[in-house]
Amino acid sequence: MRCQSSLPFQERNKTAEAAKMANTEKRLRILIAGAGIAGLATAISLTRISEIANLDIQLYEQAAELREIGASIALSPNGLRTLEKLGIDEALGDELGFRGPSGIPQIYRHWKTNQVVSVDTFGNVPDRRHQTARFHRGHIHAALAKHVPKEWIHLNKKISRAESNDDGVALHFEDGSSAYGDILIGADGIRSQVRASFYPDYKLRFSGKVFMRSTFDASLVEGKIPDLPADAAHWWGTNDSFFSSRLGKGQYTVVGAYDDGRSAEELERSVTWDQVGNVQFLREKYKDWHPVIKALTELTPHARLYPNYAGESLQTWVPASRVTLVGDAAHTHGGAFAAGGSLALDDSRALGLAFKHVFAAGGSSFSPENIQQALKLYDQTRRPHTARLLSIVHGLMNRKAPTFATPEEEDEALRSRMRSRPDLLWLSEHDVEKAFQQVVAESEQRNLDTQGTTRATQPYQKAESVVASSALGSKL
Ligand SMILES: Cc1cc2nc3c(=O)[nH]c(=O)nc-3n(C[C@H](O)[C@H](O)[C@H](O)COP(=O)(O)OP(=O)(O)OC[C@H]3O[C@@H](n4cnc5c(N)ncnc54)[C@H](O)[C@@H]3O)c2cc1C
């Protein structure tokens, strides 16, 4: 489906309706808003996981080119297993992603002493390729982009608005053009215009934290800092934290996460996401931390700023009968627990599974009812899972910072917090396919129950309808 600026939405729908009447075997036109990790993975999943042949997928991306942008991104076992299912095998090896020599997914160190206070452990990840790996976001993005035909991706297409009715969907762009299709998938990130079109009152809230991130050649720090951990390390202070890790392809990352202190309004006015930051500020902020961290900031050549926002869980991810959301557009958890990349991949897989279940496996037509059934199965698989994460995120954001009588008391409280972190295995090792099968089983059980109830409570109507259909049969 190409962009069409000349056809108004209503007329376009009439054309679509006529085509639908004429050809029940028509291709299903899917518009994907945004070609980030979620958008690309969704395009791949809808072709490979769903196994539906006649899909016409078009992605609309605001950027002028798909290039290596961003800093570090972690993928946990759930995301890596999904990458494998999507067929992105080149991302599973040790070239693109970094796994530490200890085999421990995350190590938490004390800000001042560098002492290891706590560690995460894997639950059940026997295959090393599925163990948590750290990437430059651009490398994962590029690996996905290689699996999406270039002609499907329309660049320089900044979405201003989306709309939908019973017959179709439309995306409208800032350049005045529009695109029309049968299904719309909003994959346009945390500030999604698709979400805003259907939830105009939805608000994001500043978490109070700003992430200052940098990615650079590992040779700038490795071999130059005594005691630099070979594994990824997460140092916790009372309010702020610092993260460092090698990444794949010889890259290295540092991330300072600090309480900004400014009000949400002030921050909104003065800091934009991905803005170039002042690395001198990073050095100043962490100058009293352990010498390893101090040295890392001194050797960090540049940095960018990422103010962290989060929003509430949506009531539905199917805000209109032909529209859904994936990735950060659907679950606005911000940078919490480095879960965004893996969640986006699992969203895409769940949507592919839902399409396969309704259209490919069942051989059903692309009717409005079937479209809605597929989108609802997807929603029921993913929304409760991410709602659980969002409730943790908001709990942390609402937490009042305690006050302490002495530095020793404060330090003890920090160590205790580090040791009693929430267990997040349900998130990092989530089995999205199992969750999907469970939703399908529950939905089938509900249908059986409803049929049973109908039979039990409405025997008369049931008998009538049997009579009606047999009367019709005798006329044929
Ligand atoms: C440029 C960039 C850099 C990032 N860097 C990091 C990082 O270093 N570390 C990290 O952990 N996470 C980073 N993220 C976020 C991370 O990629 C996501 O949390 C996660 O991968 C889920 O991806 P997503 O596709 O849902 O959202 P995103 O990755 O945000 O992708 C959304 C896509 O939609 C496009 N888009 C947005 N609005 C519009 C519009 N109006 N019209 C058309 N297209 C639109 C964006 O350009 C982007 O390509 C970055 C995101 C972006 C966009």
UniProtKB/TrEMBL annotation:
Gene Ontology MF annotations: FAD binding; monooxygenase activity
What cofactor requirement does the entry state? FAD
State the source organism's domain of life. Answer: Eukaryota
Renumbered residue ranges of the record's region Disordered: 442-476
Protein name as annotated? FAD-binding domain-containing protein
Family according to the record: Belongs to the paxM FAD-dependent monooxygenase family.
Q: Does the keyword DNA repair apply?
A: no
Per UniProt, which keywords does this protein have? FAD, Flavoprotein, Membrane, Monooxygenase, Oxidoreductase, Transmembrane, Transmembrane helix
TM region positions: 30-49
Q: Which residues belong to any copy of the FAD-binding domain?
A: 29-389
Biased amino acid composition, Polar residues: 448-460, 467-476
The protein's matches in PANTHER family, at most eight in alphabetical order, are given as:
GERANYLGERANYL DIPHOSPHATE REDUCTASE, MONOOXYGENASE
Q: Which InterPro entries match?
A: FAD-bd, FAD-dep_Monooxygenase_BioMet, FAD/NAD-bd_sf
